[in-house]
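Summary for the steering committee. One of the milestones for this cycle was to obtain a three-dimensional model of the protein with heme C bound, which we needed before selecting residues for the alanine scan. The sequence and ligand used are listed below.
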Amino acid sequence: VRIRKEQAVSLTTILLLLTTVIVLTSPFIGSASSAHTDQITFTKEVAPIFFKNCAECHRPGEAAPFSVLSYKDVRPWAKSIREKVISREMPPWHADPNHGEFKNDRRLTQQEINTIVKWVDGGAKEGEARALPPQPKFVEGWRFGKPDLVLQMPMEYVLREDAIDQYVNVHLDPKLTEDRYIQAVEVRPENKTIAHHGMLLSQLPGEIAWLLREAPIFETDEGGVKRVKEDVPVQNDGCKLPEGGGAGGLNTTVLTAYVPGRGGDDWTQHPVRIPPKSEFFLQMHYSNAFRSRTVNQDQTKIGIWFSKEKMPAKITTTEVMANLFFKIPAGVEHHKASACWTIREDNVELAALMPHMHLRGKSMEVMAVYPNGRFEVLLNVPKYEYRWQTNYRFAKPKLIPKGTTIKITAIFDNSAKNKYNPDPTKDVRWDERTGGEMLACFLELIKPQMQPAARTSPTLSTFK
Ligand code: HEC
């Protein structure tokens, strides 16, 4: 013991000596580093940050309004960049960092933000050309090589000059005659300068017919998007309803969504099963809002890569949980509504979460209430933005014990203060058109494969 004490003392002495040395030399370090601060340049310090964190969207042919690949293209945007990185509007990422760890987390570190800010404050200098790192490499063309199956919108869509937002809904038939397993899918707009986002669903026509017969919703003639029937009673707290608001189990799978920076998904480990006769439903949202727009036409393609496995032990499914019965009164700034869904199978893992509301969506929290009563916030999106349909992918899939209830709580702003609100004078209910609202969350689950297909029947007829 005594020996250890002596060692401790001598260690302290060494530390003190070291500190003294640092204190003594610090004036030199200080002046050296402040000289260094003035010299933050694009080529040396800033380009590596931009190439890694911005270039996937900020390069020619992508949706963002300027390229970060060269100094000449970046320089005019320096002030705006400073503002957007300080406010953390860029890169786009809306999850509260206090909950959950995500594989696709795009946030910059505080240090990276400081570097960018110092660079702009120091005059956004270029620096020596030879310091510039090599240009980042991106896959040109299809993301995962040549697809096994390519489907395309049947005709070219032309965005009208006077249109701000346009939606196109198309049904595509992959012509599957037996269960097929998909290991990757990509939605690839030909023209990313007008494609704002796109959603690709796989559904069974029979189940959609069932849904339309039984459920409190009907199909509009606008390309098959659905609305709640007018006389359906209101319940904002979906968790009070026997089925939590209406969710889960339907064989409607969201295959993927296109948003800038997300074109495809890769499920090589646990492929997605597509039953025979399934049809794909593609909804594209086009917008004139992007300043990078060069041409007005698009004819989006879908690439599918099939899995070599005949009968994978585990599969990936994406299920929707929702409350179909909410109503947001006109003019209300803070309206709360929720939905619940109880997991009734063993060995289910949660891989990703994608909250979905429309223009009045303000925030969403996703919580797990475990069978032992403990609860955990899985994801919190305090400032939801409709234009970023982010799929929050967990760093590691999370085992969800059987009997766990997933609860989503949404806040809507239907007041005139919400600059995106298309009409604050209207009460709003479930309506899949953009001007209407949805309260849903897509859950990407990994679960053991069951044969024949285990389908919980969707009991949406709660109020019948
Ligand atoms: C996932 C794609 C994506 C990533 C990553 C991304 N951006 Fe953007 N950015 C966009 C898009 C799309 C826009 C167009 C405006 C909009 O819709 O918000 C934009 C707009 C901007 C603007 C505003 C331009 C204007 O019109 O004033 C700035 C500045 C900006 N980005 C900087 C950055 C920086 C810096 C990074 C990296 C640190 C970054 N962005 C990362 C997609 C992205």
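Key point for the committee: The two ends are 78 Å apart (CA to CA).
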